[in-house]
Design goal:
Blueprint (H helix, E strand, L loop, with lengths): L1 H24 L5 H21 L1 H7 L10 H19 L8 H18 L3 H7 L1 H20 L10 H7 L4 H21 L5
Amino acid sequence: TLPVMAFGVLTVLVITGTSNAVNLTDGMDGLAAGCMAIVAFSFLLLAQITGDPGWSLRLGFIWLDKTSELAVVCGAITGACMGFLWYNCNPAQVFMGDTGSLSLGGTIGYIAVVIRQEPMLLLIGGIFVVEALSVMMQVSYFRMTGGKRIFLCSPIHHHFHLKGWSEQQVVVRFWLISALFAAFGLATVKLR
């Protein structure tokens, strides 16, 4: 029963952690949606590989029957985020809010658990990890030092904005970093 309990704890940590990390990232127009489109497209590929017996064997994945159906969900998330970006880019006409960011993060966390690619979520969703870590570091350091800060403001995208980058610069640069994380994560697939 210990492995079952450990899996349950891991599942809760992955889904809630990803959900909250995406929510923290949703602080500028287009930031969370653009990064989520990139991550969801990457997981579309991973879900397709995991659900195909030939590809999973060739690339060293665990084959899981019917997980390729989650590629459709990832495709829907990618398309929805890209369509949403049309109205969410600066200046935003529509906002994602907690309803969108928490559910998108939870869904991508769930997909990572189902296709058994939780470590890849840390790598491909690296921008979300960095955003969440910046908040944890800032809060911990602030409490330990009695009010001193590491960053001007957290999450870290606000730090760069306060350093003089325009909102569009922060968003596009974070999209590029997210694409690099995704490319690096997908490149590691062949290393198995």
